[in-house]
Amino acid sequence: MKKKSLAAKKTIHRSLLNHLKYSQVRKVFNGYRNYLDKFINKKSKIGVAVSGGPDSLALAYLTKCYSLKNKLSSNFFLIDHALRKESSKEAKSVKLLLEKFDIDCEIIKWKGKKPNSNIQSIARNKRYNLLKKACKKNNIRYLLIGHHTDDLYENFFIRLVRGSGLRGLSSFGEPIKEEDSFFILRPLIKFKKKDLIYISKLIFNFFIEDPSNENFFFLRSRIRKLIADLNKEGFNQKKLDLTIKNLKSANDGINFYVKKNINNNAKFIENKKVYILNKYFFNQSEEVIFRSITLVLKKISGRYYSPRGKSILDSIVKINSLKCKRFTLGGCFIEKINETVFITSEN
Asked: ∠ CA(301), CA(303), CA(307), 5° rounding?
């Protein structure tokens, strides 16, 4: 590499790090760093999901600074969903922008047939699968997502509207550990979107607004408006924070018994990728059984999202019936022989 190129890179790096002197940027970076320090060591590789929105651009900047300070390797990925005509052009513009700041971003295009309904949910699932695949290809164990406090509130209300239970209402924002010790982390979950917009404007003077944010066809957009209306009526976000905290405490208590149930009553045979569940696995409270089998299904299938709650509840009823036949759920085969249940992968 030419010396001039190295000198130019050093100049860019100094400029990026100098912006940490701004009090608002420093506050967010310190929170980001404290969060990541719990997971990351000097040999870790980091993957970053970038979209071009203010939250992901702020995440890209903070990760670049963190990587420079800790001499870490970080990879940046942008999923082009190809759901809008402008998406490819926008993806390229984001890639070119980041290159100016010595941030190399790989564009991954979603190929194949696109959905006509349930678009946001299907696109989200596809995005996570593509990101996870890219991370595994690059031997990355930690994927960073730019979710923030506003996302936390929105997801709380979305899940409330959909009738989610304790786990659904309290778990968003928590670190997710998947098979093969792969982690999905949200280091900005304690910060508001306005903080990230400030950083994005300061560093890049640019961000893309997703047009679906203003489309009330989507539930999230309607929920966002609902929260804005509640704020006008004096909605107290501190009380919601306390509610979520209390729900999380109760959720942690149940998770203790879920872990105990799996450890005592389930056996995983790794080379055959099969879970064997004894009769005591189903001799627990309804919620403990529900969560236990959900975790087993996710581990066997390797999928980011588990099947819908009703499907899981129906499967438990089938398993407990006297005439349980082999059936499929969430990418898994479920078979009961006498009082023992075998769960294997469809693939």
From this structure: 85
